[in-house]
Give the backbone structure.
Amino acid sequence: MLKSIMNLSGNFHVLVVDDNSPDGTAESVALVQKEYPERIFLEVRKGKQGLGTAYIHGFKWALARGYDYIFEIDADFSHNPGDLLRLFDACSGNGADVAIGSRYVKNGGVVNWPGNRIILSKGASLYTRILTCMPVKDPTAGFICYKREVLEAIHLDKIPFVGYAFQIAMKYTAWKLGFKLKEVPIIFQDRKYGSSKMNKGIITEGILGVLKLKYLSIFTNYKKRFSAKYSISSSDMVSQKLPDRIFPETNK
């Protein structure tokens, strides 16, 4: 995955956030990092802290270093790294603030997924759209490009979810803040490497999380939150101008 991204046109940088996993992820990344020391970065955290917190860690890392476009992507080739360019184009030239790699818009789809996973995914998407009224057909998608202004406006530490609900909460908050969300069709393939972390806890979080999200939105002044910028310590900033494309790649 890392070398596939390094070979893309454009100057993409990659941050891998690893929760000290026993499968040798950090060691494998470190080997590739030697070939691209200025484009591949590694952050190793102690213990298993969850996917949502890994993304937040990556978002804050990218914001502190001045990146303008921040991406999420699965590292198991479920997402085609070549589609990063299409998500970037949607944000940089076609008016989107958040570009979503969508399985459920025209020309999107899934490949080699078992029927029960398709039913679960489409059911979760329909359930979310009904409860939130958010105009996104694939709200649980995890292949995304954010403009930095979006992440600066969201109170990242107040998003408590780690699975499907985390992805939904990020999109819902951005939408409620008035940012433009655009779905870009992608073909999602069943993972080539690794195993799914889907479990009853994640499914339950998705169901109850959407209800909680909708309930809390009743009492949230999104207009006020939009004006509140995420603060970055000056000691965390770098002086040189950095490229504007990066995404946190997480070990799931």
Notes: Residues 2-250 form a domain with the Spore Coat Polysaccharide Biosynthesis Protein SpsA; Chain A fold (CATH 3.90.550). The chain has nine helices and nine strands. Confidence is low (pLDDT under 50) at residues 224-244.
